[in-house]
Amino acid sequence: MDLNRLSDWMAEHVPGFSGPLSTVKFDVGQSNPTYRLDSPSGSWVLRRKPPGALLKSAHAVDREFRVQRALAGSPVPVPRMIALCEDNALIGSMFYVMEHVAGRTIADPSMPAETPEARTAIMNEMGRVLAAIHDVDVVAVGLSDYGPPGNYYERQFSRWVQQYRASETGEIAPMEALIDWLGAHMPAKDGMRCLVHGDYRIDNLLYQADGPRILAVLDWELSTLGHPFADLAGVIMQWQLPPGAEGRGLSGIDRAAAGLPSDEDFVTAYCARRGIDRPDRFGFYVAFAFFRMAAILQGVKKRALDGNAANPEKGLRLGTFVPRFAELGLEARDHG
């Protein structure tokens, strides 16, 4: 980035800013590159579209900015949005600047360093904030047009099949089988429509340094108006993966002894918070979550091959998991 040009823009758009400006790129994330901006006058976070040719509708940092600005002051904790720059010429792509929130991220949901009591409190907070997102009055916060009408899953299925085809690098038989099954078993529209985050995972939450409270929900790139079970199934999908740095799941862990909720307990508590019935055919929703994540990882792989990934080496490694995610989607289909 041209720090001189960025500094001039910051002086115009960020109250109280004064240079000189320095940047540190965060090494997490494979979608929109994210940086901490430091100067004698304070610290901020910049999130930008990656450079180069991109898939249509992907990397929508302007939508991220809009939804987080709309949620300011709501029960959903988000960083304070400061300014959006839609001029691609300034640093090479569209970006926005937000406040820097000091907190901790939890990459591994098994939380090996925590006590069982702390794990329980952290997961309860995760469920509470998920329910709060889905309970947002989208009309009151100005997001009634944030997603198109119609059957959310039909719309999402069409979008992600299209994205997957655009980034496909070879035929993957389990992915083809999963696409065929999902297309043939689409649930009917049931009237449930709300704000959805689109990638609600524990590593996209910023917790207070010394407690279980969530200070900010991050990475709203995939947010829209849609079906709440998409986020709920996304949480359950993540937990089916192996524990550790790569899988970041809970498979094989004695959750009761660890103070972690079972899938059923988490879903039941979520439904109780929102006063809704437990979902039928939950296997479809989890299978779809695996399909969508496989499509996302395929896009990460394609960007790595094209030289546009935030971390090309990691992008190629993540791309090797696409067949396994498709297989897990078929398992969710079979086990319900």
From TrEMBL:
<dbReference type="InterPro" id="IPR002575">
    <property type="entry name" value="Aminoglycoside_PTrfase"/>
</dbReference>
<dbReference type="InterPro" id="IPR011009">
    <property type="entry name" value="Kinase-like_dom_sf"/>
</dbReference>
<dbReference type="InterPro" id="IPR041726">
    <property type="entry name" value="ACAD10_11_N"/>
</dbReference>
<dbReference type="Pfam" id="PF01636">
    <property type="entry name" value="APH"/>
</dbReference>
<protein>
    <submittedName>
        <fullName>Phosphotransferase family protein</fullName>
    </submittedName>
</protein>
<dbReference type="InterPro" id="IPR052898">
    <property type="entry name" value="ACAD10-like"/>
</dbReference>
<feature type="domain" description="Aminoglycoside phosphotransferase">
    <location>
        <begin position="26"/>
        <end position="246"/>
    </location>
</feature>
